[in-house]
Amino acid sequence: MVYQLNAVKQQKGGQTILKAIDLKIPEQQILAILGPSGSGKTSLLNILARIDQPSSGSFTSSQAKQPKGVMVFQDYRLFPHLTVWQNIIFGLKVQHISKAERQQRAEQMMATMEISELAQRYPDELSGGQQQRVALARALVLKPALLLLDEPFSSLDEGLRLEMLDFIKQLQRQLKLTIVFVTHYKSEAYLLSNQVAILIAGQIMQVATPQQLEQRPANLAVARFLGQANFIAGRWQGDYFQAPLYTGQANFQGQLGQSTATLYMPFAGGLQLEPTAYPAFTGQVAALTWVGAYEQVTLQVAASQIKLTLPVAAVALHQSYQFYFTTLPVVF
């Protein structure tokens, strides 16, 4: 089933929250909606869940006139006075599913979520990770065609967050789920999803793979939000970018007629020591910080300092090196 948002706008209290959102949700995949706080992510999910209606535009699918996703909320929203078992079967009772089928579906889902031993516990007797699994089980037992996850890992520590990200990916493959997952953490979006939609100030700025986002952000707003990059101020004249750090050809993504411009250089993947057709500059290594398999390198280039990520021991402190762009650099 293919889902489509068509020119969806949302206005409340005189404020425009979503601005003409056009978005296709791929079937049986995980689509991440990534954006800063206040960008409209939860408002968009509420429309997908039919908790709210857009001011204009439509949410449609190839099979249902009124498609509706099932939401797993950021705070889980488990009923504190009900056991895990009672929480999981609650939605099935609302749907008037027979007792025998409720029993069968709930037992199967609890086994899938590896929480069968928690059946008679109450939410306040569970860890954060266990509560997360119960909330997912309560949603998935309804057999949703579209599962919506609203910042589901924000309250978990880093180790448990990574564990749950892997678990969600396994569930998606096993159950062939279509999932929309919203977050303001780039690492979560990249780890969980092959397609990421960037939502900034109520607008979808770009939909792409993580690699495409890092290498070719659609505009300067996307590039600055993604971070982990150097932004070099200069000028665009003719077909060249001009700045003390670098003067040369670039892939110009700015507006025609602008004179000031910004060179985008991501920390990772933008520069290398191996020669390419795109020489960048010579820089002296001013600092090295070990970050596992890589080192965070600070270079002194003319009067500027820039950062990049290189394999451990690729460069030595206080030594100078010629660097090359991996591809034609981008200027906004």
TrEMBL record:
A Pfam entry, by short name: ABC_tran
Alphabetized Gene3D superfamilies for the sequence: P-loop containing nucleotide triphosphate hydrolases (3.40.50.300)
Name used for this protein in its record: Sulfate/thiosulfate ABC superfamily ATP binding cassette transporter, ABC protein
UniProt KW Transport keyword: yes
Superkingdom, taxonomy of origin: Bacteria
InterPro entries documented for this protein: AAA+_ATPase, ABC_SmlMolc_Importer, ABC_transporter-like_ATP-bd, ABC_transporter-like_CS, P-loop_NTPase
GO MF, one annotated term: ATP hydrolysis activity
Keywords associated with the record: ATP-binding, Nucleotide-binding, Transport
SMART domains named in the record: AAA (SM00382)
Keyword ATP-binding part of the UniProt annotation: yes
ABC transporter domain: residues covered: 2-226
Native organism: Loigolactobacillus coryniformis subsp. coryniformis CECT 5711
